[in-house]
Structure formats: C-alpha cells, structure tokens
Amino acid sequence: MPETNIDGNKLDTSKIEGEIRFMTQNLKNDFSEFFEKQIAQFEKENPDTKVIWEDKPGGPDFDKNMAADAVECQMADVINIPD
Questions:
Q1: Who contacts 47 (Cβ-Cβ below 8 Å, separation ≥6)?
Q2: How confident is the model at residue 10, as a pLDDT?
Q3: What segment(s) does the record annotate as region Disordered (predicted)?
Q4: Quick one: average pLDDT of 75-80?
C-alpha cells in the first residue's frame, strides 16, 4: 500500500492537482464526444490536473478487473458503474 495512504497526514483538498484515472464500461464508442468535452472543461478549470480516461469492456470481467485493482491498491479514482 502506498505510504501516502497510511501516513496519517491530512490531505489538502483545497486544490485539485495531479493525475486522475477515470474508468468507464463500454462508453467511448457512443459517448466519447460528451466525455471528452467534460474532461477538457475539468482540466481547463483545474490546470494542474490530467484526466486519464480508461474505457474497459463491460461484463463480468469488468468486476474482476476492479476487484484485482482494489487488491493491488490501483483502482481508478473515478469509476462509472451502470445501474
């Protein structure tokens, strides 16, 4: 587990900066224009950020991949989960 996750220091949430991983299921083909606009606007409003959009195939493998990422402390920061 990364030391920053367990060092007990308070996080400074007053400024958004760094890389943000955004994961979706099967959305790039139909919604890339929408999400790319949202990402561009977010990065413009938060110039010290970079959003990395990962679009994975849906289905049972998606859940397995999320579980594996969680075990390895490598989950995306934002995940779109369909209802």
A1: none
A2: 76
A3: 46-65
A4: 88
Give the CA-trace dihedral at 42, 46, 25, 77, to 10 degrees.
Answer: -150
What type of residue sits at position 3? E
How far is 2 from 74, CA to CA, in rounded Å? Answer: 10
For tokens 């007053």, the residue is 14
Token couple for 69:
């990422």
Q: At 38, list the tokens.
A: 């949202």
Helices and strands, number each (H, E), in the chain:
2, 3
pTM of the model: 0.75
Residue spans of beta strands (DSSP E) within 1-83: 18-25, 49-56, 78-79
Domain residue limits, the chain = 18-79
Pairwise CA distance, residues 40 & 45, whole Å:
9
